Amino acid sequence: MKFLExxxxxxxxxxxxxxxLEKWNPxxxxxxxxxxxxxxxxxKGSHIRDxxxxxxxMITVIIALLPCLLFGIYNTGHxxxxxxxxxxxxxxxxxxxxxxxxxxxxxxxxIVVSYGVGLTIEFIFGIxxxxxxxxxxxxxxxxxxxxxxxDVPLWMVGVSTAFAVIIGKxxxxxxxxxxxxxxxxxxxxxxxxxxxxxxxxxxxMSGKEASVDGFTGSTALGDLASxxxxxxxxxxxxxxxxxxSLMDSFLGFIPGSIGETSVFAVLIGAxxxxxxxxxxxxxxxxxxxxxxxxGLLLNGIGGNEYxxxxxxxxxxxxxxxxxxxxxxxDPVTAAQTATGKWIYGFLxxxxxxxxxxxxxxxxxxxxxxxxxxxxxxxxxxHYVVQSNIKRRLKxxxxx
Amino acid sequence: xxRTIKLRKGLDIxxxxxxxxxxxxxxxPNTVAIKPTDFHLLTPKMKVKVGDKVKAxxxxxxxxxxxxxxxxSPVSGVIQDIVRGAKRKIMEILIAADSEIEYEITDAxxxxxxxxxxxxxxxxxxxLWMMIKQRPIDVVADPKRTPKAIFVSAFxxxxxxPDFNYILNGKTEEFQAGLEALKKLTSGEVHLTLNGKSQSDxxxxxxxxxxxxxxxxxxxxxxxxxxxxxxxPINKGESVWxxxxxxxxxxxRYFISGKYDAKKTIALTGSEVKDPHYCETIIxxxxxxxxxxxxxxxxxxxxxxxxxxxxxxxxDGHIGFYSNQVTVIPEGNQxxxxxxKGWLGPGFDKFSNSRLFPTWLMPGKKYKLDTNTxxxxxxxxxxxxxxxxxxxxxxxxxxxxAAITDDIDAMENLGIYEVAPEDFxxxxxxxxxxxxxxxxIRQGLDLIQKECM
Lengths: 399, 453
What we know:
The structure holds 2 protein chains of 2 kinds. By secondary structure, chain A is mostly helical. Chain A folds into 3 domains: 2-35, no CATH class; 54-197; 220-254 and 280-386, no CATH class. Chain A is 64% helix and 1% strand. Chain A has helices spanning 2-15, 25-35, 54-85, 96-129, 136-146, 154-169, 182-193, 195-198, 220-225, 237-243, 246-251, 263-276, 281-301, 311-316, 320-327, 338-358, 366-398; one strand spanning 36-37. The longest helix of chain A has 34 residues, at 96-129. Chain A is globular. Among the domains of chain B are: 4-29 and 105-257, 3-Layer(aba) Sandwich (Rossmann fold), CATH 3.40.50; 385-452, no CATH class. Chain B contains 11 helices and 21 strands. Chain B has helices spanning 116-126, 164-167, 172-183, 202-205, 224-231, 245-257, 288-291, 396-404, 408-414, 425-430, 437-452; strands at 4-6, 20-24, 31-34, 44-46, 53-54, 59-63, 66-72, 77-84, 90-97, 133-135, 139-140, 149-153, 189-195, 211-216, 240-242, 263-269, 277-282, 300-304, 311-313, 325-330, 336-337. In chain B, helix 3 packs across helix 6, helix 8 runs antiparallel to helix 9 and helix 8 (396-404) crosses helix 11 (437-452). Chain B is globular, with a radius of gyration of 21 Å. The two termini of chain B are 32 Å apart. Chains A and B meet through helix 1, helix 2, strand 1, helix 3 and helix 17 of A and strand 21, helix 10 and helix 11 of B.
């Protein structure tokens, strides 16, 4: 690696202050620090530092996302074939290679577009502000394709990524300063700007044009939401659970956004995040608790088929698990205090199911719930901090 | 009423180079330096000029804004140089030391028999006052105030710290005399806090007339800040003084013998030291006598103090006023390739509090850590990591942010009066975003001093 090191040393003067390519220093620095942890040393205070840095933290999230990504690629391929054949009963584990190729054909371009657009914007801002690339987008860039429907046009991925990075993050000051989760901002933008590409029956399976008449590409959530309308897809909840069994929903053999369907894959990611401490155990567990609690509450109210869907079903369909593990835990936009994290997660799960079931306009409520909680997180923290202050003031009075 | 405190939070960083329990004889250094920068916020007004002869105990400067606070020379000799930095700030007063120390002699007295004003005026006049630090602000104590308590920690839990049980063994009489003097200075208790994990030396367990507490836990259990917070926390308007255990001995020795004998034992530690051991030396001593032939490699950092809070010095520099140890670790000013030693490497050579590195696999391993930050500075992203190493009922990240944004109200509410920069050393160590939190807290404290004191 001496060879690479020599290149870095040789290039450095050109990019440093007074050099020919001074302006491009942020770009140079970004790549140089990818290859080499820089030679920055401590000055005073703590002379030694923990090995962990933001790059390692972020790469861990990407590793945790891999099971979802790999499963998502396969699942996308599967449903593309289903749509082409117009037959939902196609066996899941057949024609594996064809499905993988088909899935890659859909997912890879989305990843390339998301990273391409996002990183370009990050670099432009980096050059403007004179700092190297901050690592936050490495994760956002992977999350964005995973929460998109398979059939979304690539230019929409690009536009929503650009919107999310500029409006969601950079105008607030970049990584660590944003109020809203960047990936969810992208999804929210698409959802409200191009609703027909983000919901309904036709977007969840790629290449729907070739399909057979009478076949719908609806998702579990879409079908469930129809219980709230006059024309439900299924007669009652039992027919629904026959169609989308708990096991299929858990393993992810159902249509949906690319990365969100398999709760099993999400839980592998959750295990990695919780074990390494990168994702907050408090948020993940309380998010699930909140969702389950709301499910039970709706069961208790009852009155129509959707409300009577067993509460645990809510946890395995749609983007609930994915949102709980990868979105709600974003440390920048979540609550930052320990107590705050419990409250934040619980309310997030609660509201997600509330929106999902009771708001007919939005079959999925998870991303809206998390965005809402992102906005609320500082308020939650404020009260947690106030209680800490009051507790210590009380000490003064009793003493 | 003595108390036992158990801490769940904290972090013991295990490093290579712990000092063996061998004590090198006292060797007179050729130069001794007093660095006014060790006394934060104090503006020195010189009493001596270059070329003046001083004795051990002669006053060399005093505080411009509080003239009763004086600093004495630890040795006899000639003022060799007054080193100035930017804006003519005095950085160092260099004294060429005589081979035999000649002392300023005053009457010996048992502090027990003196009134509290007498104790105070003797300590101020002799320069011993510098050893008393005050909280809030973490500066030399203001003699016009009376603290509600004085805290002495009987152990140091920081990485590679000297074992006080070893260095203060047999100094029972001097230590007790020092405590007697401190007792005269406060209206409340003198707290002596022992390490609950192991048996303490008789010097500490036999201490009379003080409140003995025990604290069990990882670093920063030995920090006075932690002990104050759990035993007698500081509220706005109150003050608590703290004295290092070894300095208590120096204070006691002064009262018993009537002269300022600043000899003390320091630990020479760190992975780059050939033979880590204890040395008899004197406050401000030149390091070259101690480090001679001891440093094993070229590119090293010499720290006066421990790796978490110490001051960087040159290999021929001088020991800081409050330091009880010298640590030598490798400099980390090399590029580290991503897959071997960088951010994607296996990381067996890195000590981490997070599970992103295999530190947790090897609980007994001792590490050789360098001064590389292991990453670039970023905005705060990760939350919850500081709380794991900060055993206070204070929100560390919120307080650090308040300090960064100069928000005085928030700092007061969040507990700035209770903390010193050293309490945040571990937070700074674990910070993923590599922010110099101790420095930020120091700036916050300075602002509080300026605006609220």
